[in-house]
Amino acid sequence: RAKALPFTAHCFYDPSMDAAAREKRSLAAALREALASGGGLMLHYQLQASVTAGEITGYEALLRWRHPTRGMIPPSVFIPLAEEMGLIPALGAWVLRRACTEAAAWPHPWRVAVNVSPLQLADASLPGLVAEVLAETGLAAERLEIELTETAIVEDQERALSILRAIKALGVRVALDDFGTGYSSLKTLRSFPFDKIKLDRFFMAEIESSAEAMAVIRSVLAEGVERPEQLAILRAEGCDEAQGFLLGRPSPAVSSGPEPEAAASAPRPPDAAPVSEA
Ligand code: C2E
Ligand code: MG
Ligand code: MG
Ligand code: MG
């Protein structure tokens, strides 16, 4: 076989691919090390609020990783890496345990939303892990919300559905994240027991101009609310729950501080809304 392919092997040699693979292995090794020591990993929290009541409903836990020499690595880089390198079970368990431990100390109505990778939803041990962490931390089940993306349910629908049902049977809430970015129809989604649909922030860009975008904003949580005008539309249309830089950025500590109240007051001039990621 090797004899038959002398120049294909030669043609496929690409030093930059080699470097990329080395880079990936080195990053994965550092992430594995962070997991083993707990160093460099932390959760930031971004508030979710009821825009009609102007009250905090909960916080989404967002994983952060500071590499020992390279500084902050974005989740868009290290989450896919963890998925590819088999680190998701350990990383996912770390996030769940940490988020539930911290949330157990928050004021009682506040929920914590935890992102779960599609790989975790394909693993039948997830409901057991969730039950174990709730028991361990004493967090009431209804204060935990699991966030899943559409990719988690398209692969093997039956399996995903049965794992979801087992999680819901514990009393945990389930939210569909980034709705509008995948290919699932609302009809498919209706057969899944979601408690909440999080409208992807790309919708926010269209909210002022599109009737379709308008039609789906009732009964969803709107992500990526950056401008007061967007918040005003959500409120007028009865879309009650929202998350975005206007209300608060992901931060290392939760607070009941002035951000949601400021956002819940009358729409402010656009220059009052910071929009770039810190
Ligand atoms: P996501 O779950 O959709 O989280 C929301 C993302 O949007 C966060 O990015 C947040 O910082 C950003 N965001 C929030 N409000 C605004 C806004 O008003 N404008 C803009 N432009 N962005 C906003 P982040 O923290 O970089 O996380 C990116 C993604 O990484 C998350 O998207 C989620 O899919 C994934 N991720 C983060 N933490 C975890 C985790 O613990 N486990 C897993 N499996 N995935 C995670
Ligand atoms: Mg999320
Ligand atoms: Mg999202
Ligand atoms: Mg997203």
UniProtKB/TrEMBL annotation:
Domain (EAL) ranges: 24-264
Stretches with biased composition (Low complexity): 250-266
Region annotation Disordered: where it falls in the sequence: 247-278
Protein name as it appears in the record: EAL domain-containing protein
Protein's organism: Elioraea tepida
Interval of the full protein contained in this chain: 350 to 627 of 628
